[in-house]
Design a protein that fits this description.
Shape: globular
Strand content: 15-25%
CATH architecture: 3-Layer(aba) Sandwich
CATH class: Alpha Beta
Keywords: Disulfide bond, Electron transport, Redox-active center, Transport
GO molecular function: protein-disulfide reductase activity
Distance between the termini: 29 Å
Protein name: Thioredoxin
Order of helices and strands: EHEHEHEEH
Low-confidence stretches: 1-12
Number of domains: 1
CATH topology: Glutaredoxin
InterPro entries: Thioredoxin, Thioredoxin-like_sf, Thioredoxin_CS, Thioredoxin_domain
Number of strands: 5
Mean pLDDT: 89
Largest sheet: 5 strands, mixed
Pfam family, one: Thioredoxin
Helix content: 25-40%
Strand order of the largest sheet: 1-3-2-4-5
């Protein structure tokens, strides 16, 4: 019996970024949500740190799930998505990758990008 309960041992609020723990975890998040914006980042990256509060805000105000992948901890996963610089933002809609951008984008541009795929 499968239920979609928002509260379970592995449930996370979509109002805050979800920290990805493995390739399988990322795949589950993408499969379970309509729109997912994945931030491939590094703790030592200045632009990534500037983007952090923007993504936290978007997590709370959009219907998208914001997922974060630490490229230092998950190098094979970053390589799988062709991440060559951080931050790299990958947008999934309906389980498929639809956009990829390297570098910091302003909050309004990110919001428009997400809203273009949410109805």
């Amino acid at each position: 019996m499968a239920t979609e309960a928002p509260d379970g041992p592995n449930a996370q609020s979509i109002d805050e970024p979800v920290h990805i723990e493995s390739a399988n975890h990322l795949e589950r998040v993408v499969d379970e949500h309509d729109v997912v914006l994945v931030d491939f980042y590094a703790d030592w990256c200045g632009p990534c740190q500037m983007l952090e509060p923007v993504l936290e805000g978007l997590a709370g105000e959009t219907n998208a799930v914001i997922a974060k992948v630490d490229v230092d901890q998950h190098q094979p996963l970053a390589g799988e998505y062709g991440v060559r610089g951080v931050p790299t933002l990958v947008l999934f809609a309906g389980g498929e990758q639809v956009e990829q951008h390297t570098g910091v984008l302003p909050a309004d541009r990110l919001r428009d990008l997400i809203e273009g795929y949410t109805d």
